[in-house]
């Protein structure tokens, strides 16, 4: 079968032939339909983050946003033909309580592999095998969009974390502000714009019109905020104080500045993973603003089954035309290099094994 | 009656004679026993924060950590002789939903007064009147310690916020690290050391032995951490990653650096309110550490009835000798200037109307 493999020396990405995997007794064989690409895939392929092959292998099969069809359910409760999406983390031995509790997203770094990211093969191959506890069902009519489940589950986890953190009092958020108009930012914006949690949504970018990302923001009812015109600290005065800020830029200043965009009791969730960066901050204001306004900042990484299931539910609830608006290119396996390139026209690219 | 009043011009603190207050139909008359002093009182008296008199007055009666005895319950359910402690915030008109929900601690700045801090008289007077919904009962045998309820309620609110934020998964904190060995830091350390939440506690200071604060830390089973020897980022390696960090220093670098003292899934609560301060930070590491480790930072200000009640419960559960260890001086009203002075021997000072 064909697979897209990263050889860390180089790094060098190749489409390779590998034997079709044979599922073990406790594994399901899945035929891959589509694999979405996100910013971390680009960083992995560039050699910036992750990319470690599994023990004993010289390459890592990439791809962690997949949807496929069960080809051989082995002894699981799945049936041949079921549409499924795999979760990303796998426990290292010995499994921690986070593995036992199905809360691997909260497990300490070093205690798990991440399929397609580091330490375990991903899903950008014609077939993959997976233990059934890491599969989540996708409705048949969303088979062509199932690669959105994993990134949408990050938005669900962020919502879960924010609402849980505020559950001790009568929090009534109205506005959500997404920092970043990349594929995760726009997907999250779509989620927050179409859900029940917020009345108004905003998305930060730095693009001139006409621009496909600005068009998408406005198509879901969001307001585009140009970071070249409005600093985050000015956001409350120019627009309104945000109750929830969802960061996707990986711009480390945003971990500080985003707090100034919040109203009282607001929550920032951070999702980006920047490298080291030293800079000046007005840290006294950051500190006291957090305190006197009961604000919070929560880091969010990965997600677990309830977040995947919530993402599937959302995927079912929205028109496919909305999801189509996020897909800027679908490529065959041989076009993976094009799928990985990133231009101003790129939103979500997909490698499809159906092409 | 005697009262301690701040005249903002100057600022000038005076012991003045005021008429004994007459309770309105919806008010209780309380005879004051003791009033604790904390760092914000010192800042108010110095003219750094708050200090605004109530509308129409030229002075502010200070003091917000009080315990007293009901002298006239008027129509309330309290009885003459009941020991009580008042909460601090009062709604401005028109009352917000935070007032109606008894969640004034989460109300936006500008929508409330704070007794003894700004906009409403405090409790450092022989008598004060208060609506009964702002009074919390204190057991008779803790009458001489009831001034601890308000500051201890801040530690309770921080615990509440942290545990609520982590309630979505199986969080198992073991270690708590208090930043600062002032009176709030040591009180919180005592709370965390004697409660069920943590197995090990630490307290950051910058003092040489022999020192009364170090002695107190060790007397409750905590470990003293000298900030001159161990930076916060080194804390996990030298001691252990903290699951919970409670900041009381008001040192704005701590709002950033405290995150590096946490282990995975850890929470920092910030309580200090520094002024403006610009400095350099390793902000990329701050950002990515929050994300990859699912860490969080929560600002915490003020507290509400359940936190006061939890603080009362704790006060009852610990030996009075522990509480005595926190009191470095008890002064008569005429000694208020001494009570407000702050030396290396100062922990908690108290103005007592029983002296």
TrEMBL record, chains A, B:
Any single GO BP term: non-phosphorylated glucose catabolic process
Ligand binding (substrate): 40, 114, 150, 302
Needed cofactors: Zn(2+)
Superkingdom of source: Archaea
Domain Alcohol dehydrogenase-like N-terminal, first and last residues per copy: 25-140
The entry's keywords: Carbohydrate metabolism, Metal-binding, NAD, NADP, Nucleotide-binding, Oxidoreductase, Zinc
Coiled-coil ranges per UniProt: none
Domain called Glucose dehydrogenase C-terminal: residue spans: 143-353
Keyword field contains Oxidoreductase: yes
E.C. number(s) listed in UniProt: 1.1.1.47
GO molecular function: D-glucose binding; glucose 1-dehydrogenase [NAD(P)+] activity; NAD+ binding; NADP+ binding; zinc ion binding
Entries under SUPFAM superfamilies matching the protein: GroES-like, NAD(P)-binding Rossmann-fold domains
Binding residues annotated for NADP(+), in chain numbering: 181-184, 206-207, 300-302
Catalytic activity: D-glucose + NADP(+) = D-glucono-1,5-lactone + NADPH + H(+); D-glucose + NAD(+) = D-glucono-1,5-lactone + NADH + H(+)
Described function: Catalyzes the NAD(P)(+)-dependent oxidation of D-glucose to D-gluconate via gluconolactone. Can utilize both NAD(+) and NADP(+) as electron acceptor. Is involved in the degradation of glucose through a modified Entner-Doudoroff pathway.
Similarity annotation: Belongs to the zinc-containing alcohol dehydrogenase family. Glucose 1-dehydrogenase subfamily.
Protein name: Glucose 1-dehydrogenase
Organism whose genome encodes this protein: Haloarcula pellucida
Upper taxonomic lineage: Archaea, Methanobacteriati, Methanobacteriota, Stenosarchaea group, Halobacteria
